[in-house]
């Protein structure tokens, strides 16, 4: 029997969106999650079985033991980089029994997760890259031009989100270095953004068939942070779609993925990163009427993407909100009032935590947030 297994290393609304997308399509998924204080993805009403394990490796071993079948391949789906990299490592043991995000050989996705490698391949296809230096922590490039931003080389390390600093001089950069445990880091030309764009997409047939499903932009700009509130629309940027398709073909990726860009004051798009997985905005494709998780699964079975069948016009003004994060960013800091925020919350068609008809995960997350995240 074909199963749809959601492997969760970290409880988050990304894998929750996968579960809800499957459930709303009439598919009851299985959740295999690394146990921790927060357990809410597996509590969705759509989940038919759930298992808790001590590590991502244990989760993969459990999946192989219980669900490997040569008669009918099952799907392994995930929404975080650590899990994607681990599944990539297990490629040879999984490939005959499961459909999963892959690039045709063990370790190939992890190779392209390295920001140096990632930037090299997108630059090859004429996508704008900010000037970047790879340095030892504490080393200031001789030809540095301020302002700069520090970034982790790879997004699967322990502190990758904690070492992002914007620095305007040597003193600030040295201060940023003092907070880092990593041996090496990227120092990148800082682009002042007016918007941030995300292209959510799927690919099959070893990266030869690519479809950019939606394009997201910020409802409001946070200069140095990722926005939790987005406009969703059909992508009409054909030039960028072609460049994205060429990159994915070079990588030979079969998967769900996202390209992120900064937009500067002159309208230029500057490459940020590729996420080789379902992202925060994955569930917004479901609300928009084009559920990328379901379409990727169907397309992997068929070997091609039926774009004409799948395409739908996204309603004008469709918005997606990571509501718990957005509330903290704007209401708790006094940017807008609670009443103003509630009006926007009520009109957001896609709510990452609340979902559409699946209340318990939201309730459990809020209980955890009130207890541990003040």
TrEMBL record:
One of its GO terms (molecular function) is metal ion binding. SUPFAM superfamilies: Glutathione synthetase ATP-binding domain-like (SSF56059). PROSITE patterns: ATP_GRASP. It holds the Pfam family CPSase_L_D2. Keywords: ATP-binding, Ligase, Nucleotide-binding. It comes from Faecalimonas umbilicata. This is D-aspartate ligase. The keyword Nuclease does not apply. Residues 119-301 form the ATP-grasp domain.
